[in-house]
Amino acid sequence: MDNLSIPKLRSAIIMITHGSRRHTFVEDMQKLATYLEEKLEVPVFLSHNEYTEPNWRNILLDLSDKGFDHFVFALAFLGRGNHVARDIMGEVGASEFYQWTKTKYKDRDINVYFTRPLADSELVKLALFYRVKGAFQTGEEPDYIEDPEEIEERTMNMIREKVKEELKVEGEELEVVSRAVFASGNLELAKHVVISPGAITSGVEALRAEMPILTDVKMVMAGIRWKKVENYLDSSAELAKKLKITRTAANIRMGLTSPKIVVIGNAPTALVEVLRVQRENSLEVPLVVATPPGFTNAVESKEELIKSGLPSIVVRGTYGGSSIAVAIINELIRVSMK
Asked: InterPro entries from the entry (predicted)?
């Protein structure tokens, strides 16, 4: 039977426990039944197999008399045992879990669905694991560093040492590459950062002149610590449709009408458009930070940027991402404010 065809108004969940004469047990099980009802928005009736009332058999008969004909039996037993296979499923004429079965109970035509008992549930295992685990804990925590500034400084110092050893770079070039590595969490990235001659100086001077920064996507825009950051994605749809280009490319065409620093962290087509607009208008672009990741257009557009001679900081190949672009430009902003 298709679950989509189940008439919810004639459906009920009968939650069955083994049963106990202890009031606290029934109280706990009722809380679980209430939780199910609130989550599923289907009436849930707590019942028991023995020891206490209501018995599931009486609940089933009462509900069927009231017009219910689809019953989910939620078996709140820990293990399988005879109560499941023989006493309950056998009594209503069902043999399979998680499958609707049309059957007859006391001359009433009904449809039944049984869940498995709980012992094989990974969540039950995990709950028991966490409750037992505390018995073997010493209460001593590792000596974690929790001060955010100390975390960043320690990490940056480790990265600087590795990058300096690997690439033999110093000064601001070392800082830019190290920030890119920090943002990516990948030391391998250092080998793929290409900084064109004079790019850092050009970018810092443009920032000191309070030049605006144009970004490809809003995620990049949101992370840049600069008062003049532009993005035109929200109004680029019409131009994109007219020129049959992507919205991020149209955003670049709309924004790059005067000299600006450009930061591309996500969209290779935006980088393609930067190069196109610059060629068409011979526009002065003091710096392009380009870190778009991917396998289509990303590698090619970044290589074209490197060959163009424009001042640029590029993460070569398929590596990249918005956070890396933001880290690079924020490092230059930091330098410009000295």
From this structure: CbiX-like, Cbl_synth_CobH/CbiC, CobH/CbiC_sf
